[in-house]
Design goal:
By secondary structure, the chain is of the alpha/beta class. It contains 24 helices and 19 strands.
Length: 656
């Protein structure tokens, strides 16, 4: 039996190895790279369609430039897998998005070919321009700078800020516009329409080449011919709608060209290397290229669950789906119901309709649904305008992405005291997406704004009442919830009242003050502390980080042996900090108070349960923290009074 031939991919230890391959071998390599991507997603959920779409583009870039010396930034970064395959990491691709394995985004720790850890869209042209300006400043002007940005990210405000600056600086910068007619969802807005017109028009540069070939026969010479040609070019480009926007900003526009034609890509990239000033190369690709199911449904195959390919290669077996309901499901269902009840309510998202599970709202209430594209700052300012007009807008955005609208939260919402509701999805640790996507700062940055109410549901039964409370409140409200399955605490639920916590169980040995998704964890920890260690520890569902429940803080610090705050967010400025500040303001002792939350470092990619265990926010971690605190506050080793009765309030319950 003959051994199977070695893959070409196995011979690529670095991009320099590509230079030894013939055209036919490069085409074979592209096929092998796609198969490697299919193999990975057969094992675990990973970004898929976007990576399939840039295989030829990635090959062409590494063939045309030397990125051991030149600079390359992949915007957003979830399409980084082909780049990792070509930069010495093919043998580790199977570890991607797992604890200790490759990151699903660029990571400078992994490779010198990854310059920035990118995870948010739109910043690559700015950072690439900065690299070029910095290289020129320190005497390394021979280094070229390239940014690859998708059409979904193109409308982001920072992109046009960088284009404006590029046109003024006139640095040698290449921006590759990877146009696949998609963000994660289909793109929206006028910029998409503009690019579609470019797709349908004749390629300007092919026309330009023909004009130059016949120029000698035109009976004009010298300066007059050159001026006439330029005016004619501008008129044609304006009539075709092709590239004029970029040209007016000072970038030379090339394209659009076929992003899956490796020879054509290399030809254009070699041409760009000879040009001076900023250039935008418009490349047309298909998201999911080379795998028919992903081309047919790129949204479903953006980051699918593991699947298998049938022998025909033309279809896949049904994707595995979880039967568990997540917090995102509960929020979206509640918003859908509220849209029916409140015609003045609007739901706004920033290109994350699928991620936030807002499809039913988009379909059933189209006049109340607004997808603004990857433009979070605009989303918040837009919501402020709606609120000022008397509507009740809900801004539904991942916590990590809402950070991009910090100034608009301040100026347009908080300063005006407008009733905008912020639904912060993916708050806390998000698992395999890692540090670029963790929603760990929202409590800290939302708490600082006057007029802002900051809340978090402790379980499924808190979600709908909190949304109703928020939409009835006449000031801005932020509600955070995790990327996690719903849990339900069986209890006689207490109504949502501004700044009032929910006491689930009152005990005086110690109290666990839990915020948001940490409430069920705290309940299980309290059970273990009682059953295994004889400590009677109570639990509070804090509900509010602002305004804090001052009466509760005074009661627990005055009457309980120890107090432990628990939150899935940064400690600096977080819920525990709010408790400490309140204690200070009330003149209360805090020697028996400790805070449990995220440490002052970035948490790497892993499964969410692994991350929670790593930072001590699982049941074991909470139990250990409580026992340590009890020993510190009870140095003589006295344990809880065995005969002490628990004060089990009517609202007490257990997580299920």
């Amino acid at each position: 039996m003959n051994p199977s031939p070695q893959r070409i991919l196995d011979r690529i230890a670095a991009p320099a190895d590509l230079k030894r391959l013939a055209d036919a071998e490069l085409e074979q390599l592209a096929s092998e790279m796609r198969q490697a991507l299919i193999d990975v997603v057969g094992r675990r959920s990973a970004h898929f369609a976007s990576n399939l779409g840039v295989v030829e583009l990635c090959l062409a870039l590494h063939l045309s430039f030397d990125f051991a010396h030149d600079r390359l930034i992949w915007d957003t970064g979830h399409q980084i897998y082909p780049h990792k395959l070509l930069t010495g990491r093919a043998d580790r691709l199977h570890t991607i998005r797992t604890r200790g394995g490759l990151m699903g985004y660029p990571n400078p720790v992994e490779s010198p070919f990854d310059l920035f850890m990118t995870g948010h869209a739109g910043c690559a042209p700015s950072t690439a321009l900065g690299l070029k300006a910095g290289d020129d400043l320190v005497g390394q002007s021979d280094r070229r700078a390239v940014a690859v940005i998708g059409d979904g990210a193109l409308p982001s405000g920072i992109v046009f800020e960088s284009f404006n600056h590029s046109g003024g600086l006139k640095k040698n910068l290449l921006v590759v516009l990877n146009d696949n007619k998609m963000s994660i969802c289909p793109r929206v807005g006028g910029m998409g329409d503009y690019l579609d017109r470019a797709r349908m028009s004749s390629t300007f540069n092919d026309w330009n080449k023909k004009v130059k070939s016949v120029l000698p026969s035109i009976p004009l010479v010298g300066e007059h011919a050159e001026r006439w040609l330029q005016q004619f070019k501008d008129a044609i480009k304006a009539s075709l709608h092709q590239g004029m926007l970029f040209e007016e900003l000072g970038l030379v526009y090339l394209g659009p060209i076929d992003g899956h034609d490796l020879r054509l890509l290399r030809d254009y990239l070699e041409r760009v290397k000879e040009m001076e000033g900023p250039v935008l190369l418009h490349v047309l690709t298909n998201k999911g290229h080379g795998f028919a199911p992903a081309v047919k449904d790129p949204v479903k195959f953006h980051a699918p669950a593991p699947f298998q390919v049938e022998d025909s290669g033309e279809a896949v077996l049904p994707l595995k789906t979880s039967s568990s309901r997540a917090y995102t499901d509960c929020v979206s269902e509640s918003l859908h119901e509220l849209c029916r009840e409140m015609p003045s309510m609007a739901v706004i998202t920033a290109a994350m309709c699928e991620g936030n599970k807002l499809q039913r709202i988009r379909e059933d209430y189209p006049s109340q649904f607004f997808d603004v594209g990857i433009c979070e700052s605009h989303a918040v300012a837009f919501a402020a305008g709606m609120a000022k007009a008397g509507a009740r807008p809900v801004v539904d955005i991942y916590s990590t992405f809402l950070q991009r609208s910090f100034d608009q939260i301040f100026q347009e919402v908080s300063l005006q005291n407008l009733p905008v509701v912020f639904c912060l999805d993916r708050a806390g640790l998000v698992g395999a997406d890692g540090p670029t996507h963790h929603g760990t700062y929202d409590v800290a940055y939302m708490r600082i704004f006057p007029n802002m109410v900051v809340m978090a549901p402790g379980d499924a039964r808190d979600v709908a009442p909190m949304l109703r409370f928020a939409l009835a409140h006449n000031s801005p409200v932020a509600i955070r919830y995790p990327r996690a399955n719903l849990e339900t605490i069986e209890r006689e639920i207490q109504p949502i009242e501004l700044g009032t916590a929910e006491i689930l169980e009152w005990e005086t040995d110690g109290m666990l003050l839990a915020y948001g998704a940490m409430v069920p964890v705290a309940i299980r920890a309290a059970d273990r502390l009682r059953e295994r260690h004889g400590l009677r520890v109570g639990v509070v569902n804090a509900r509010f980080a602002k305004p804090i429940d001052q009466a509760l803080v005074q009661k627990v610090l005055s009457e309980c042996g120890f107090v432990l705050t628990i939150e899935e967010g940064v400690l600096a400025g977080g819920f525990g900090a709010a408790v400490l500040e309140t204690a200070c303001d009330l003149g209360l002792p805090t020697t028996h108070l400790r805070r449990l939350g995220l440490p002052d470092r970035f948490i790497l990619h892993a499964e969410r349960d692994e991350q929670l265990a790593e930072v001590g926010l699982d049941v074991d971690g909470v139990v250990q923290a409580a026992l340590t605190l009890e020993r510190e506050t009870n140095p003589r080793g006295k344990t809880a009074m065995a005969g002490r009765k628990s004060s089990l309030l009517p609202s007490a319950g257990r997580a299920s």
